[in-house]
């Protein structure tokens, strides 16, 4: 899986090693460079330590240096990996600073532990949610306290999408999930939900017979989209377990993830209007709030982050 060339791993000085060890492993496998990043809170302007002439700016620099030394100590065990590693310690809002670094350094993958977790089933924290919404490159969120190695990878796609951008996103999701499953020697599952838009109200107006015919046509369309998504003639197709269910996307995806005990879900996070709703919106928020596995989320091509980039001071 040599698709990532510049990987960023966000870690706090007190976080566990799951994100760091996987980032180093991926960097080795992809022959990629690695940025190790931490973000600390800014010191309020005007603060002066009692009995000392140190002002807020100097104190901020001291804290940055301390964090850099702490990160260097943690990286000591990876010194013989020959991976090019850069340390970045920024001040400010973590999600904003991570995204700024992604844009400035042309990062193509962000890895971090899923914050905001205290127990299995807990929600992704605020930093993770901000990255899922605004980070232009793929974001890999690890839940190490729930799963170790990836044995079951689940790719979630939207087969109702009929525009080029989202069809390409589906292909990217499947391609990435497939490459991870091969590398991890894991089972690959593919899940998609389908349905007829406004089926309930339409039945009242048009009758069951007409709507049943429309449902059959929609099912044929979804099956055709699935056939077009799977690589033609690929031997991997026989090893992909398909979960194609009629129903609400968030409920279907969560149910399949729980049933197969997925270790990793690969999915798109993109706000779009249309029949099947937005994957950053009600569907994705519902999935994020109860997902019990790690997640690798990607954006469609052409996504532009709302985060503004300027030179750091």
Automatic annotation (TrEMBL):
A Pfam family: Usp
Main subcellular location of this protein, as a coarse class: cytoplasm
Residue ranges constituting the UspA domain according to the UniProt record: 4-143, 150-299
Keyword annotations of the record: Cytoplasm
Cell compartment(s), UniProt: Cytoplasm
Superkingdom of the source species: Bacteria
Keyword Nucleotide-binding: no
SUPFAM superfamilies: Adenine nucleotide alpha hydrolases-like (SSF52402)
Name of protein: Universal stress protein
Biological source species: Novipirellula rosea
Lineage start: Bacteria, Pseudomonadati, Planctomycetota, Planctomycetia, Pirellulales
